[in-house]
Write a structure and sequence with these properties.
Layout (H helix, E strand, L loop, with lengths): L1 E6 L5 H22 L5 H20 L1 E6 L5 E5 L5 H10 L4 E4 L15 E6 L14 E6 L5 E6 L3 E3 L4 E8 L6 E5 L5 E6 L6 E7 L5 E10 L5 E12 L5 E6 L4 H12 L3 E9 L2 E7 L11 H5 L3 E5 H5 L3 H14 L2 E5 L2 H4 L10 E3 L4 E4 L6 E4 L3 E3 L6 E5 L5 E8 L2 E6 L6 H4 L3 H15 L7 E4 L11 E7 L5 E3 L4 E2 L2 E2 L6 E6 L5 E7 L2 E10 L6 H26 L3 E2 L3 H21 L1
Parallel strand pairs: 3-4, 3-5, 5-6, 8-14, 15-16, 15-18, 18-19, 19-26
Antiparallel strand pairs: 1-2, 2-35, 7-9, 9-12, 10-11, 10-13, 13-14, 16-17, 20-23, 21-22, 24-25, 25-26, 27-28, 28-32, 29-30, 29-33, 31-32, 33-34
Helix pairs in contact: 1-2, 2-12
Keywords: Membrane, Transmembrane, Transmembrane helix
């Protein structure tokens, strides 16, 4: 065993040295003046030894041990860096080199080493257990080029605009990405004008319900195809909301908003105050019914309330409390249309706070084109306690919400969103209000919600997913096999599962007791999204082995040295110094 020593209280080193030196000088001076001239040198030496021993004890010495014959293995995975490999081979000439094969079951199972250097993208997550008893040093491979991050909702309502957002590393100058639908028609594209890492955004508006495979094609500056990746997409029938709008006076904002909501198929109930005691009622896509906002039964059918600040205050305390109860208990959504009175009020309704700002314009980050709107000369002050819905290009929230238990309350700093339609930016207007509606509206209760971090599944490879369900029901695939679920130890409604698809194509999971709770995914026979897969594998390896290495180090942690022998020496010395004057006298 190779051992080394250090001090647990190493930060005290200089303080202890200075204090010990001063005590030593004082003790020698005292002995020189008072002790027998024959013994003062011996007393001084013993006193200095006692001070030295106590100083060492105060610093708490500790011992670190490591194996004398530490065997090392170098494991090579895809995209490993040759220069890193050459450097390791020079430093560890006896290290064994192994090529990792994810399809080989016996790969990595018989390693006889203490330290493993893992080079490249890393090993598959289902093979992590094979290295759990080793100290692993993960060294990522060559810099990646391509899309390493992608965010999009693979389930979208018919007529809604779908956004594909991602991060592209090291693009080629004047190369481009083209988004195509299942028939090969180009829907959107982006051209790289620089070679630095670039945020990308592509959008499309599906027109037919069903399961589809969109594609993203990468082409060089002269149009040659470089790479193709697929995007599975499920287009579903739109979910119509029931929306109650309360206004204290007629406004252009509500006039354009109600037309947009009606065109989207939502049911709209609008109450507008005309005079002090007269109200105007409008019903779009819904029969005329009494607008009884003081009736809990009426509010239970409402998904979202949109009200200007004065209209909400004029409802009275009883109606306000009833709406708040519906928000917290039943998930009702509330959006307060802002005005000067609200943003300059000290009430801080809903927990929102504002501070003054110099500009009255904001450029929104909702489309790839420039979208500028008029806003109040305010900004949100409590950005740590709110959630943004729409932000500026500088990532400052202009539309935000706060969670009220089961429901959400939102508001905006945009003075007039309808001006977007006046200048012909209908897509930006729709994107703005679509985001507000989808974020704030009452969440529809479903029997199960499925999640997965993977875009595609592959035959005979593990496809992991998470499902949130109240009960442990039997989950099956439309291919006929049963899929066991493992319950989360903390969240009772959270379950995890894994399956190994056999055939390419669209597949579906469903609960036997509720066939409406389904999850569709696509199994590809070709490995798309290789750069994204390499990046995710690297991230998973980095997280796991950093934690695993820390746990391995705990087995070889620094152990404190037994201080009894130090205290023994100190007691002997102190005993002598106490007895010496008495014996001499």
């Amino acid at each position: 065993m190779n051992s080394s020593y250090s001090f647990a209280n190493g930060d005290w080193l200089w303080s202890v040295l200075i204090a010990g030196l001063l005590l030593g000088i004082l003790f020698v001076y005292k002995e020189y003046k008072t002790a027998n001239k024959k013994y003062w040198i011996l007393n001084s030496i013993i006193g200095m030894v006692v001070i030295l021993v106590l100083s060492i004890a105060a610093l708490q010495p500790q011992k670190t041990s490591s194996p004398k014959n530490n065997k090392k293995v170098i494991v090579l995975t895809s995209n490993y860096n040759e220069q890193v490999l050459d450097s390791l081979k020079k430093r560890h000439r006896k290290a064994k080199i192994i090529q990792y094969d994810p399809e080989e079951e016996s790969s990595l199972q018989s390693l006889s080493s203490d330290t493993v250097f893992l080079l490249g993208d890393g090993i598959a997550t289902h093979d992590f257990w094979k290295l759990q008893k080793h100290a692993v040093v993960f060294l990522p491979g060559k810099p990646l080029k391509g899309i390493i991050k992608l965010k999009y909702d693979n389930k979208v309502a018919l007529g809604k605009r779908l956004k594909f957002k991602g991060l592209y590393l090291q693009p080629k100058l004047q190369s481009k990405l083209v988004l195509k639908d299942q028939t090969g028609i180009a829907l959107d594209s982006v051209v790289f004008s620089e070679t630095k890492d670039t945020l990308i955004e592509l959008s499309a508006k599906p027109k037919v319900v069903g399961n589809y495979l969109f594609t993203i094609e990468e082409k060089d500056s002269i149009g040659n195809l470089i790479n193709t990746d697929v995007l599975p997409l499920r287009v579903e029938e739109p979910n119509a909301l029931k929306i109650l709008i309360l206004n204290s006076a007629p406004s252009f904002e509500t006039r354009y908003l109600k037309n947009y909501l009606a065109a989207e198929g939502h049911q709209v109930l609008l109450r507008t105050k005309i005079t002090k005691a007269k109200f105007k009622y409008e019903f779009l896509n819904t029969p005329k019914v009494p607008v009884a906002y003081q009736d809990p039964t009426f509010l239970e059918d409402i998904d979202l309330v949109i009200a200007d600040y004065r209209a909400f205050l004029n409802l009275g305390q009883t109606a306000q409390e009833l709406i708040k109860t519906q928000i917290t208990q039943n998930g009702l959504g509330l959006f307060i249309q802002p005005d000067d009175y609200m943003v300059n009020s000290s009430d801080n309704f809903g927990g929102f706070k504002w501070v003054n700002h110099s500009t009255s314009k904001a450029e929104l980050a909702i489309t790839t084109q420039k979208v500028e709107v008029e806003k109040f000369k305010k900004v949100f002050a409590n950005t740590n306690t709110i959630y943004p819905i729409i932000t500026t290009i500088n990532n400052e929230p202009v539309v935000a919400f706060k969670a009220w238990q089961k429901g959400r309350v939102g508001t905006s700093l945009i003075a007039s969103s309808y001006t977007l339609q006046l200048v012909g930016k209908d897509d930006a207007y729709q994107e703005l209000w679509s985001s507000i509606l989808s974020t704030l509206a009452k969440r529809k209760q479903s029997a199960a919600d499925f999640e997965t971090s993977k875009i595609l599944a592959y035959p005979d490879e593990p496809f992991e997913f998470t499902v949130y369900a109240k009960n442990n029901q039997e989950l099956r695939s439309d291919k006929g096999y049963y899929i066991p679920l493992r319950n989360d130890l903390v969240i009772e409604e959270k379950w995890k599962g894994v399956l190994y698809p056999k055939e390419p194509g669209w597949q579906q999971l469903y609960f036997t007791k509720d066939t409406l709770a389904t999850f569709s995914f696509y199994v590809s026979d070709t490995h798309y999204w290789q750069t994204l897969d390499h990046y995710q594998t690297r991230q998973a390896n980095s997280r796991y082995f950093n934690q695993a290495t820390a746990q391995t180090k705990q087995t070889n942690q620094k152990r404190p040295v037994n201080l009894l022998w130090l205290f023994g020496i100190a007691m002997i010395g102190l005993g002598y110094l106490w007895l010496a004057p008495k014996l001499n006298s």
